UniProtKB/TrEMBL annotation:
Belongs to the WD repeat RAPTOR family. GO terms for biological process: cellular response to amino acid stimulus; cellular response to starvation; positive regulation of cell growth; regulation of autophagy; TOR signaling. It holds the Pfam family Raptor_N. It comes from Trichomonas vaginalis (strain ATCC PRA-98 / G3). It comes from the Eukaryota. The keyword Repeat applies. The keyword Zinc-finger does not apply. One of its GO terms (cellular component) is cytoplasm. Residues 722-732 have a biased composition (Basic and acidic residues). This is Raptor N-terminal CASPase-like domain-containing protein. Residues 93-243 form the Raptor N-terminal CASPase-like domain. Residues 1-29, 703-737 are annotated as: Disordered. GO terms for molecular function: protein-macromolecule adaptor activity.
Length: 1170
């Protein structure tokens, strides 16, 4: 466990463990305390609604645009699986060192040289020649040296120095561990002038065969989490002993954790078993100790000894020369830091290139102290290799002493050490400049090695001139692919990037490093635990509403704040103030769609556990400003809006009004929006104390209606205003109930409301919702609304939404478990979309619509033609009964009674399959928008699914008609050719128009009560929708006239309409084929026949070519035939039996047929005009 004493530690070396200082936390009342208040009967208990509406900009939806983020993926379809906490259990974190015990030999033994030959040579210990020191000064100098080194490595640790080892000292060590029961303890043993350690353990004074501290006992005394450093001969023998001891170690109850604490220990050994440290007088006797804690002097010394010494050195060597280089020279400390940066970059890159990712992340990224020790241990491997010494560690690191990158370091040191006369070069600049040049060149070639990337990750934090350029290049690399981001996440130092983010940066660098941080958080959410406690992050909240900062950059900053909210409580404190809500209300109307999205997600993340206090948001009207986004053109913003409204449902008044304001989202095309709406309702039900005794009354009313065979989707009436009497809302039993989408929404708010994106429509909607809130029966209407919502959501075609609706309904009626917590699904999806959009630099937002180009076709009557078979394919696992060509290709989409769709390429080979519904497929259409093929599927349960590109799941799935789950409807669909929208049929013969770009309901038009059998949006005029019915009626709707409809009934006996096909050759020509064999064309504006022909047969299946005046039809009894617009039979297909479906290609003279035996046959038409 993390020691509580570390929490809030003001240290530049400390790291967060997921908790922060309590003084930054915002205290909330309990959900069952302050929020369990008597209901307020007004949307605004202390403020006039009219005044508040004037404070907010309600035109935000009217002026909205798309976010232009990356598209959703197949993974997003399973949104309930993404509904998991952004942060997972932080089991991989490493506890930092809290205390150190340093053990050296007794003072009088330091000056005793082991050899007569070496009696006049220096004894280097703690970078002091103790041979020339007074015995009384030795211990104090050693203590001062190592205390400062450890405190430089990590502040606020407990340092204890033990001189010599005896039973009394062992008891002292035991007591020291008891005094620091939590946290990692470091046992540091320097074996100079101690007896050589053996498998039995460490000999202590007085030396005897029995006075030995066994390593098993030592392991249990220090006890994990722990760290050991043995700087002595034969040191490697301790590792296998410790490994065996850890298997039998029992964690004290005071330190029990969920993890395997017995294995939580590290060990550094200067030598392998049987090896002895080199007896070279100019090397320090505490070689490994100095290398791990202070490697720069040792690196320089070893380089000099191995490359430049040609004679015996001068007096006081090596102390004198090291002091001259690092201490006495001008800017010595600066030079030392430059070498340190280069050295650590090299060691870090070597480790990343040779270790498994998990091991590298654990030892070199989780804790700064641990990572520094392992980096310096790798340096020790390299320095001791020329002397035949092989240091060992636990966890075991491979021998990295011969990596080729060491030669680069040696060459840099050679230039630096030998340039004393002419002035030392800037080793940091030279090294990282070469790294930057290599990185740019290899990026152009498309491949970056792991070593080079690791070096590059250190460049932004160096002082060379290219640091800014290195940040931009790293962000560009991250934007290219997910694999690049994964590699960057494994190698980069998150806390360093985050610390730089909150420093003073240029606009370009701020954006690039923000994108890097967002990418790292998306790849590894637990990176937030690396953020230091004492880091001042005020620069980020300040930039959030700074309009001098680009909106894209602020979107990235908002995403970062939303990601770190659980660990950096200062963010929560900032977002809980009235000033924040004031700024939010002012920013949302003018922000870019992407910034709007992330501001709303930030609100959702901040108040995910507890709602906001009404006094903080009510004066600014933030809840109304966010509610105005519920009709935003971007489905992501709509989803974020309803998700963020959970922040305002702590008190009954505002919460109840929001329930009604959100009602149009029931029929949103986007399953993400509907899922978030279901989560919003669940959260509302959890926080509000509803009068569930009203459920019995509602159930009785339902049972009464069911007994009269009324439709079980009928909705309850709500009063138009608070004064309206309940009897005024009662309907005549014989009066037909309006079950259109508009009709259901109207009943919720008690009268007609407009669902347009206009300011007046929204204001009118707010007032009517507030009227419900003020009515005497507000409780009853609220419970009725909740039950209605749960009914509709329970029948949703998307499995995740359906499951959420079922849980809600069960909780309402049976008191079941409503959910297993709040949702981060939208946050996880949006974060991935933001990263995948690749915004590594600020770019201009492009929202221009692409002009639609149309190639004119000429419709001439064809005198004669012949059909030539092209390909035949046998489908062994399905019987096709819907077949249709894709728009610009030869490929086909085929539907089967098995409720699945397959795609066939031009060779009739299957290359895609989808099962998206449990109901019968009633219509299948294809279109191509932005060069992406889309298949639109209608099913008998009133649902529509959109399958696009090479995805394996639907991008859209929604309920297109208001029929109930146990009713069957002949669901028709028709895509527009020019704009990204399509029409669907309603169960009552009406037409509904949908916007595919915005994933949003556009409008609804009533139609004939007869069964609709065909639907078509005019190819050259997407404002015209034509529908045909089984009674022979044709209806033409002008969608520029909202909520109006125009039905034309020509005085011709057409019979039931089988097919309607818009002509490509004219803006107004509509071709139709009826069941009685009437082939006609109509002017959709004048509604006059262009041609009219009677074919003497009844037609079951038919398709009409939009470019040529021909149709293919399957008679009731007879051969499939091709006919002209004059009714002339051009050719027949006598060999084609039991045809189940026919399809003409949209532009080419090709058609295809499917048979009940499972065959797909394609044909080429050859025309003859002679």
């Amino acid at each position: 466990m993390i020691d509580p004493s570390d929490i809030g530690e003001r240290s530049s070396e400390g790291y967060s463990d997921g908790e922060t200082s309590d003084d930054l936390a915002v205290k909330y009342p309990s959900a069952t305390g302050s929020y369990d208040t008597p209901k307020s009967i007004s949307l605004l208990p202390q403020q006039c609604l009219y005044d508040l509406i004037n404070k907010v900009d309600v035109s935000v939806a009217e002026n909205s645009k798309l976010t232009n983020l990356a598209h959703t993926t197949d993974q997003d379809y399973y949104i309930d699986q993404l509904n998991k906490p952004f942060l997972y259990i932080n089991s991989a974190m490493i506890e930092p060192i809290q205390s150190v015990i340093l053990i050296t030999t007794k003072t009088y033994q330091f000056s005793e040289n082991v050899s007569e030959y070496l009696k006049d040579t220096p004894i280097i210990f703690g970078w002091q020649n103790i041979y020339q020191m007074q015995a009384s000064d030795i211990s104090s100098n050693i203590q001062t040296c190592y205390r400062s080194l450890y405190l430089h490595l990590r502040q606020h640790l407990v340092f204890s120095y033990v001189i010599g080892l005896s039973q009394t000292k062992i008891d002292t060590i035991i007591q020291l561990r008891k005094n620091c029961p939590r946290g990692r303890q470091m046992f540091h043993f320097i074996g100079y002038q101690f007896p050589k350690i053996t498998n039995r353990g460490i000999s202590y004074y007085p030396i005897s065969s029995t006075n030995i501290l066994s390593f098993e006992s030592l392991f249990n005394i220090i006890s994990p989490p722990s760290c050991f450093l043995f700087d002595c001969d034969n040191a490697g023998i301790v590792i296998p002993i410790f490994e065996e001891a850890s298997k039998h170690f029992v964690t004290p109850s005071a330190r029990k954790t969920d993890g395997n604490q017995a294995s939580d220990w590290f060990c550094f050994c200067a030598t392998s078993p049987g090896e002895e440290l080199p007896i070279i007088p100019y090397l320090p006797k505490d070689f490994l100790s100095q290398c791990i804690l202070n490697p720069i002097p040792l690196v320089i010394l070893c380089h000099i000894l191995q490359n430049y010494r040609t004679s015996f050195p001068t007096e006081n060597f090596p102390i004198s020369i090291l002091n001259d280089i690092l201490l006495n020279s001008q800017n010595g400390e600066i030079e030392r830091n430059k070498i340190s940066l280069v050295l650590l970059a090299v060691a870090d890159a070597i480790a990343s290139d040779n270790l498994q990712p998990f091991m590298f992340k654990q030892m070199f990224r989780r804790d700064r102290t641990t990572s520094r020790m392992f980096e310096h241990f790798i340096v020790a491997q390299h320095l001791l290799q020329p002397y035949g010494i092989h240091p060992q560690s636990h966890p075991r690191l491979p021998n990295l002493s011969t990596h080729q990158l060491w030669s680069t370091l040696e060459s840099e040191l050679s230039i630096w050490v030998s340039s004393k006369i002419s002035g030392r070069p800037n080793i940091e600049f030279d090294f990282f400049n070469r790294v930057l040049t290599s990185f740019e060149n290899t990026m152009d070639n498309g491949y970056i090695s792991q070593v080079l990337l690791a070096l590059m990750c250190h460049a932004p934090f160096s002082g060379f001139d290219g640091a800014k350029r290195s940040v931009i290049l790293l962000s560009q690399l991250a934007a290219r692919s997910q694999s690049n981001r994964n590699m960057l996440s494994k190698i980069s130092i998150f806390h360093a990037f985050f610390a730089r983010l909150v420093s003073n940066l240029s606009a370009e660098e701020l954006h690039s490093i923000s994108y890097i941080v967002v990418s790292l958080l998306q790849c590894d959410p637990n990176s937030v635990f690396d953020i230091r406690h004492d880091l001042d992050i005020s620069a980020l909240p300040n930039a959030l509403f700074d309009r001098n900062v680009n909106c894209q950059t602020r979107s990235l900053i908002a995403a970062i704040l939303a990601a770190v909210i659980d660990t950096v409580k200062a963010v929560e404190a900032f977002c809980s103030t009235a000033e924040f809500f004031d700024s939010l209300t002012q920013e949302i109307p003018i922000a870019s769609p992407q910034l709007q999205l992330w501001l709303l997600i930030l609100v959702k993340r901040v108040f995910g556990s507890f709602p906001a206090i009404s006094g903080s948001f009510t004066p600014s009207g933030a809840h109304l400003q966010i509610a105005a986004c519920l009709n935003h053109k971007s489905p992501e913003v709509r989803a974020a809006a309803i998700a963020s409204l959970t922040a305002f449902i702590g008190e009954r008044g505002p919460a109840t009004a929001l329930i009604y304001l959100a009602s149009p989202l029931l029929f949103d095309m986007s399953f993400v929006v509907r899922y978030e709406f279901a989560q919003f309702l669940s959260r509302f039900f959890e926080l509000q104390n509803l009068d569930l005794s009203l459920l019995e009354k509602i159930q009785n009313e339902r049972n009464s209606k069911n007994s009269k065979n009324t439709k079980n989707t009928k909705t309850e009436n709500f009063p138009e205003n608070s004064e309206q009497k309940i009897e005024n809302s009662e309907k005549n039993e014989n009066e037909e109930e309006d079950l259109t989408i508009n009709g259901i929404i109207d009943k919720i708010v008690g009268s007609h409301v407009s669902l347009e994106r206009t300011s007046d429509s929204f204001i009118d909607f707010v007032h009517k919702c507030d009227d419900i809130n003020n009515s005497e029966k507000s409780d009853e209407y609220l419970v009725k609304a909740i039950t209605l919502y749960s009914d509709i959501l329970e029948k949703d075609p998307h499995p995740s939404v359906k499951q959420a609706g079922s849980r809600l309904k069960k909780a309402v009626f049976e008191g079941g478990e409503i959910s297993d917590g709040d949702t981060d699904a939208l946050f996880n999806i949006s974060l991935r979309q933001l990263v995948n959009s690749g915004q590594y630099k600020v770019s201009e937002e492009i929202n221009e619509e692409k002009p639609f180009t149309f190639t004119p076709f000429h419709s001439n009557d064809v005198p004669a033609c012949s059909a030539h078979e092209l390909l035949v394919a046998k489908l062994t696992d399905m019987i096709p009964y819907h077949v249709i060509f894709e728009q610009t290709k030869y490929s086909l989409a085929v539907a089967s009674p098995a409720k699945s769709i397959i795609r066939l390429d031009e060779g009739l080979h299957q290359f895609g399959r989808l099962s998206c519904t449990d109901a019968a497929i009633t219509d299948l259409r294809t279109t191509e928008w932005d060069d992406v093929p889309r298949i639109i599927i209608g099913s008998s349960d009133g649902c529509v699914n959109v399958w696009e590109g090479n995805h394996h799941e639907c991008s859209l799935t929604f309920k297109a008609t208001t029929c109930s789950a146990n009713e069957s409807t002949y669901q028709l669909v028709s895509p527009a050719r020019q704009k990204h929208k399509f029409a669907t049929s309603n169960f009552n013969g009406g037409v509904v128009l949908w916007d595919a770009d915005y994933s949003q309901f556009i409008g609804e038009w009533k139609g004939d009560k007869a069964k609709m059998t065909s639907l078509e949006i005019a190819a050259r005029d997407d404002t015209t929708v034509i529908s045909g019915y089984e009674n022979g009626l044709l209806s033409v709707i002008d969608t520029r006239q909202p909520h109006l409809f125009s039905v034309s009934s020509p005085n011709y006996n057409l019979g039931g309409i089988v097919k309607i096909k818009s002509s490509f050759s004219s803006d107004v020509i509509i071709n139709t084929m009826s069941h009685t064999g009437v082939y006609s064309a109509w002017d959709a504006r004048m509604w006059e026949p262009v041609h009219y022909a009677q074919i003497n047969t009844f037609v079951d299946e038919c398709d009409i070519h939009p470019c040529y005046s021909i149709a293919i039809l399957t008679p009731n009894n007879g051969n499939t035939m091709i006919v002209s617009s004059s009714g002339k039979v051009l050719c027949t297909l006598p060999n084609l039996k039991n045809v189940s479906s026919v399809a003409m290609h949209p532009t080419l003279p090709i058609f295809a047929c499917s048979t009940q035996s499972g065959e797909i046959v394609s044909y080429q038409l050859a025309f003859s005009y002679n």
